[in-house]
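Whiteboard transcription, Tuesday session. T.W. wrote the structure tokens on the left side:
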């Protein structure tokens, strides 16, 4: 009786015929995707689930989990988790992910379950960084370039006024210098043509 009980326990502990003992899961589409901030993914993330012999496992439940904070987003259902069931080829996919605007690298946790077997994997994704391009200006003055680059109208007006004022001061200085040169030229002594006066000579002829 004791021998029968031990044998029965061993049989119960062994996997039933046709039962999957080990699952393997791999990402077959969408791994390492780079996404624009705030965009919706046109491509999905597809995984394939197989057993220990490499045969596809149909009917496995595959859970996808996005990070709670940082780079990431939401699934098409508006949540950070979604579940898909594998088809006859062992494939399961999620589509229409809405990415957030936080740039960086993050992982989507993927867990497959079928009967008593479990398997997990992480699919790494990236949200790209956006870089602004500074406006270019052809103004020669640094103040003019600063005014063009400034986004505030008042700042632009003040900078342009400063440029205009600087030009007026420069023009005034040039005009003053020109006037001073003219006055100097007017008051300077003018050298008259040289006159040579010799000793008077008196000639007296014979009477």
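and on the right, the sequence the group agreed on:
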């Amino acid at each position: 009786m004791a021998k029968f009980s031990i044998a029965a326990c061993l049989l119960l502990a062994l996997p039933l015929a046709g039962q999957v003992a080990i699952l393997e899961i791999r990402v077959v589409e969408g791994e390492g995707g780079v996404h624009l901030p705030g965009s919706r993914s046109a491509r999905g993330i597809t995984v394939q689930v197989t057993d220990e012999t490499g045969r596809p496992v149909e009917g496995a439940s595959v859970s996808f989990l996005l990070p709670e904070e940082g780079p990431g987003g939401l699934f098409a259902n508006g949540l950070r988790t979604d579940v898909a069931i594998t088809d006859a080829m062992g494939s399961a996919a999620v589509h229409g992910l809405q990415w957030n605007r936080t740039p960086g690298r993050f992982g989507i946790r993927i867990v497959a379950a079928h009967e008593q077997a479990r398997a997990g994997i992480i699919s790494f994704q990236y949200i790209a960084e956006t870089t602004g391009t500074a406006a270019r200006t052809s103004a020669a003055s640094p103040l003019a370039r600063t005014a063009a680059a400034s986004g505030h109208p008042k700042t632009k007006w003040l900078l342009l006024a400063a440029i205009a004022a600087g030009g007026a001061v420069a023009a005034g200085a040039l005009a003053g210098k020109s006037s001073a040169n003219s006055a100097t030229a007017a008051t300077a002594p003018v050298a008259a043509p040289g006159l040579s006066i010799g000793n008077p000579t008196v000639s007296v002829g014979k009477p």
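Someone added at the bottom: The mean pLDDT is 73.
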